[in-house]
Structures are given as C-alpha cells and as structure tokens.
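Reviewers of the previous submission asked for a worked example of the structure-prediction workflow described in the proposal, so we include one complete record here. The input consisted solely of the amino acid sequence. No template or homolog information was supplied to the procedure at any stage.
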Amino acid sequence: MLKSASVGFGSLALAGLCAEAAEQSPLAPKAPHFVPKAKRVIFLCMRGGPSHVDTFDYKPKLKVDEGKPGLGRRGPSSRSKLMASPWEFGQHGQNGMRISELFPNVAKHADKLCLLNGMHTDLPAHPQAFVKMHTGNSQFVRPSLGAWTLYGLGTENKNLPGFIVLSPQTGLGGSQNYGSAFLPAIYQATPIGRGSRGGNGAQVTNIANPRLSKEKQRLQLDLVQGLNTERLKQDEVNPAIEGVIESFELAFRMQSEVPQLMDVSKEPAR
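From that input alone, the workflow returned the following structure tokens.
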C-alpha cells in the first residue's frame, strides 16, 4: 500500500529537489560560465497555430512560384500547388526584421526579438517531429529542452517546481516532450492540468489534504521516506526512487505556496 501510495503522491511533483543548503541542491541556481541574459524561459508550443510563411518566415520566391506544382516525396505533384501567403511582410526595427502584417504590435518590438528561421526537419509525421523539436532527436530518448534549461539555470524558489508544463497532451510524444531521460528525475517537468481540459483546467489537484493536518502529513511522509531510503540503500543506485524521495519533499512544501500562486482572481484584467 505504501509503495502504491508513493507513486501516486510522487506524481504531483516529480520535478524538483528542495534542499536547505544551496550547495547540496542540484536545483540551486548554477554559477554561470558567463553572465547570462536569461533567468527563465517560457516556451509556447503553438500546436495548430498559423503557418510560418504567414507569420515570420518571409518567402519572396513563393510569390513567384505560386500556382506551380508542389513537391511530394517522389518529386513534383500535380495534386498540390504552391500557394503564397496572402499577407504582406514589412521590415521593422533597426535590423529590418521581416514580420507579417498579422502582428503589428509584435513588430514594434522587433529590435528586442531574436528570430531563427533556420529550423527544418525531414520527418513527415507530427508525433516524431514534435519529439524532435522538444528533445533534438526522434529516434532515441533524450532530455527535453525544459529539462536541460532547469539543469543549466537551476531555480531560486525551493518551494515550487523549477520546470512546469501546462495542460500537456497525451499524444504527439506525450511525456517524452518534457521528460528528463538520462538526467536525474528531478529535472523533468511537473505537469499541471491535462490537454483535454484546456487552459481552464490547468490546476494542481489534491494540493490540500482534508483528512490530515500538516503535522500528521509530516509524520506520514517521514515514514514513507524512511522506507524509500532503506530501499535505496539496498539498490545503491536507483534514479527512480531518488526522484520519488525528492518529489515528496517538494510536494509537501508546495502546499503552502501553490494555492496563492494558482489563484488568478487577484490578477489585473489586462
């Protein structure tokens, strides 16, 4: 029963370690090799978003070739024809960045943006392409972009996960898109909500225990942690158990901060 309870409770926050001493915490802010410009990363994966040729990827030759046969896997295809973007692109900022007329407000900040148009893939299917975009490889299990970011930057808040994913999808690679692979389990994401429920359902469930006081929860957790520690001594090296032990402590501390953090009623309307 305790073993199954460990798995259930640990799934709340299998993404972080909370150690009092910063030098003992793998999630503590790292000493950088150089002065970093970024302290945190927000990655928006716009599944079903507009085409790159309609937004930020200016393709002047596409207008010249509009109506010509498109290229399939076996060469030119009479079934499909090239279509240019119906929207115009303007040059913005001192660097002359090309941005579609769809984003007039974004265009005002062109000099603050770094736009990379050099990404490509030869994968024909969305699931494999999704995994490659998030991990860099579609064939082998590799740490996700978020896991590497947490590994490199660490986190300053010991009571909250350093890496979260909002409303993750179960398909298109699933948890592999935010997993830690061969990195320690503490670097994988804490999922909040489910993709099927959308953004409105992005909440941390069961954050409060109505049956036990905080003191009794601490006693219960100490018992389970003791059993996990004894098992870890037997195995000597077991990343899964290490991740569970660390996630339990983080989940316990999350109870004090998550309710206030997830309460958006106090946020301004704009």
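Strands lie at 69-72, 75-81, 89-92, 97-100, 164-166, 190-192. We consider this example representative of the routine output the project will generate in years two and three.
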